[in-house]
Specification:
two-stranded antiparallel sheet, alpha+beta, seven-stranded mixed β-barrel, 299 residues, 5 helices, extended
């Protein structure tokens, strides 16, 4: 079982649920250290005090805020933990919203919330069932690691999950990244929809959703340990030339996707790209005057 990273409570109106917070994810990436290439001696980072010009131990190091060039305000972990905020001790639920109303770019790391003690079992189950039946998620505030955060509470396999969330002003405006205006034909949009349909899955199970990068690194490490040549990189499938025609690229992509799924690779339902018909210049017609009406005079 992973270690507890925070202990507190969920505050749900007047209901309090004592909980322990544990990480919901694991990182299986291959880790590397830095070495001196001449003798493979380990290269380490040492912490030096600029004032005394000596290496300091971890128990001599604390946090501080630089107010001016000469003045630093020390802040202890106890002071951060004892901030006069309700969110320093509890995850305060502020509202319940539909999940689709939350932009996924604001959702971050996930944590499992574990009921702490016998007294927490019933209110924990109550909140989990209420969240499950309502099809909503809870938006909460909490304070960890020297800052207050927004969080999203949902249920996964009857366990309450807390996702860290970004504040609205932490999301950058993407409008400056937009490409210049372009025109797309109906046939091109329908071709993209056909490609999406051919690539649609019911779940994310399968070999294509495995971490092949880590597997390749492990193969290289094992080969070098046994003094063998690392495995060669497989050649990319298909032609390497760039397809300029968008409809041709969509058609070939649908064919490949269907072939990979064991379906008929012939594509019959993708519309052919039509040439835009030249517009005839509109004829100018004289405006007809309505008999019996006099023109209005401006005031």
């Amino acid at each position: 079982m992973p270690r507890t990273v925070w202990s507190g409570a969920i505050s749900f109106g007047l209901v309090t649920v004592p909980i322990n917070v544990v990480s919901a994810t694991e990182d299986h990436s291959v880790r590397f250290h830095q070495y001196h290439l001449e003798d493979m001696g380990r290269v380490r980072v040492r912490k030096f005090c600029e004032a005394e010009d000596r290496e300091v131990r971890n128990d001599e190091i604390g946090k501080g805020y630089q107010l001016t060039k000469e003045q630093v305000i020390p802040i202890s972990d106890d002071e951060l933990r004892d901030l006069p905020l309700p969110t320093a001790k509890a995850i305060e639920i502020e509202a319940f919203v539909p999940l689709e109303s939350v932009d996924p770019i604001r959702i971050g790391e996930g944590y499992y919330l574990q009921p702490s003690g016998q007294v927490a079992h019933k209110p924990y189950k109550l909140l989990a069932q209420a969240l499950g039946r309502s099809a909503k998620v809870a938006v909460a505030k909490y304070a960890w690691s020297g800052r207050e955060r927004l969080g999203l509470l949902r249920v996964r396999d009857d366990v309450i999950v807390l996702h860290a969330m970004r504040w609205p002003d932490e999301i950058r405006d993407p409008t400056e990244l937009l490409p210049p205006p372009v025109e797309l034909s109906d046939e091109e949009v329908e071709g993209a929809l056909a490609l999406m349909d051919s690539m649609t899955r019911e779940d994310l199970e399968g070999g294509e959703f495995q971490d092949t990068y880590t597997e390749a690194l492990e193969q290289i490490i094992e080969a070098k340990r046994e003094h063998r040549e690392p495995p060669a990189m497989p050649e990319p499938e298909g032609e390497s030339g760039q397809i300029v025609d968008l409809m041709a690229a969509l058609t070939q992509s649908v064919q490949k996707a269907r072939a990979n799924r064991g379906e008929d690779a012939d594509v019959h339902d993708l519309p052919k790209k039509k040439k835009a018909a030249k517009k005839q210049p509109a004829r100018k017609t004289a405006a007809k005057k309505t008999p019996g009406r006099k023109p209005r005079r401006s005031a």
